[in-house]
Amino acid sequence: MNLRRISLLLILLLATAVAVDAQVTKQPFGKTPDGQQIDLYTLRNAHGVEAKIMNYGAIVTSLKVPDRNGKFDDVVLGFSDFDSYLKNDPYFGAIVGRYGNRIAKGRFTLNGVEYKLATNNGENHLHGGIKGFDKVVWTAHQLTTKAGPAVALTYLSKDGEEGYPGNLTANVVYTLTNNDELKIDYTVTTDKDTVHNLTHHSYFNLAGEGSGDILNHVVTINANRFVPTDAGSIPTGELKSVAGTPFDFLKPMAIGARINQDDEQLKFGNGYDHTWVINGRPGVMRFAATAYDATSGRVMQVWTTEPGVQFYTGNFLNGTKTGKSGKAYERRNGFCFETQHYPDSPNHPSFPTTTLKKGQTYKSTTIYRFSTKR
Ligand code: GLA
User: Fold this and answer.
1) CB-based contacts of 226-230 (< 8 A; 24+ apart in sequence)
2) pLDDT tens-digit series, residues 296-319
3) Phi and psi (nearest 5°) for 125?
4) Catalytic residue flag (residue 201)
5) 90 alpha carbon to ligand 1 midpoint, in Å?
6) What is the model's pTM?
7) Which end of the chain is more exposed for a tag (fewer CB within 10 A), N or C?
8) Is 141 a catalytic residue?
9) CA angle 171, 177, 178 (to 5 degrees)
């Protein structure tokens, strides 16, 4: 190779590196009450799709995707300023842990030892306790991957934190792929046997956040069975067939079509707030669910390796939170597809296990894929 060729090659390499680098930017977003710096990472893919993620709670604060005419809107609920996230009781956009969803009475027994966790949801434990993974500062760094721009976040949850045993390291990588996917890769390790169930808690509104309720979104869930609960949203232990119930989303169905039916499970959840048992083998990446908004043409598909998906229809939103565009989020203004293990698994030996043994590495991936149709 002559000198000219080498310098051309160098320039080319440099240009690619700069272009790829430009896909992730970082800016200060605020400070926690104890003075820790919070940064917002902006990921932009080759099509202009953009996700904003911060190192507090590993929260996705914004996700802009095009509608069928190429107009971008932010399709996740959230706040415009950091301080509002300090009171983020709906868990907007967060990574929830150490155990997403509920553990009955905040108790479980592992290796003959009973562990007591905080009860922060009636008599039950919810979403990791008083200070779950959604309320802690993660260590973040940006990555450039072949698939697209990414941010890697790590959190070490100390032995005894919120009552859980073991030093648990959670690593979450968000990649905004050039196939218009928000991909979440979880890697979890521990130095002592423990339980874990991390999930992602974005509230979606494919018509754009702040645009009203999601009852006309048409949803499909790839599940023949769901996890019925008691009045406190704790599983009864049964995995029930969806056939003939308002929980049958095997064929596309508007969220609002049956949500007010006289059904005990819908009453217990105040709407949909249940885990569906995704068809196929846990651990294998498979189609979980899809949502379609006819006004914008936006489609979101959810793929995961997790055994279940909690479909929650924002039943507890009540107009007291003001969102990014200045509008109050009312009941059912967003919905969640939280891919996860079933609630209260530590107390249900028949459910897929949520025990992570000392020295084991748990890996899990979930993909939210965006497209449009006419
Ligand atoms: C999950 C739960 C709901 C509710 C929301 C947050 O989806 O299942 O019951 O706690 O989180 O408000």
Assistant:
1) 226/274, 226/275, 226/276, 226/277, 227/274, 227/275, 227/276, 227/277, 227/308, 227/342, 227/343, 228/265, 228/274, 229/265, 229/268, 229/269, 229/274, 229/343, 230/268
2) 999 999 999 999 999 999 999 999
3) -95, 135
4) yes
5) 7
6) 0.94
7) C
8) no
9) 165
